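Support reply, case 0932

Customer input (verbatim):
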Amino acid sequence: MARDIELKERWDVLVTKLSAQFADGDPLELDAIIYLVGVQELGQLHREFKKDEKVNLMHIAICRLLEPYGYYEFHFFDEEGWPHYTIKEELPTLKSGEQSILMKEALVGYFVEKEYIN
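Our regenerated output:
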């Protein structure tokens, strides 16, 4: 229970901080935060992305976020600088709410690691 409370508190801090920085204070949704991680991981911060590139950015983010859990492993950067991952272990079947909790936990861990939040 205490872990759930800590996750909620850290998640709220993360959403507030990112929303102020990237959305003029309008609360960012989970998908938007995942997208931001993809852009960060690609490292091409100041450019426009096509629709298919945005999907790929989300994929990069999910791979990077779930790497510490043992589901993905970084493989290489391609000639355009895009990171590629290999699947180490298939993701378990999760209900929608469970997926959301896993991604929030992974995002909080990512931003703690990057020292963006405590």
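We compared this against your earlier run and they match. Two observations from our side: The longest helix spans residues 2-22. The mean pLDDT is 94. Please reopen the case if you see a mismatch on your end.
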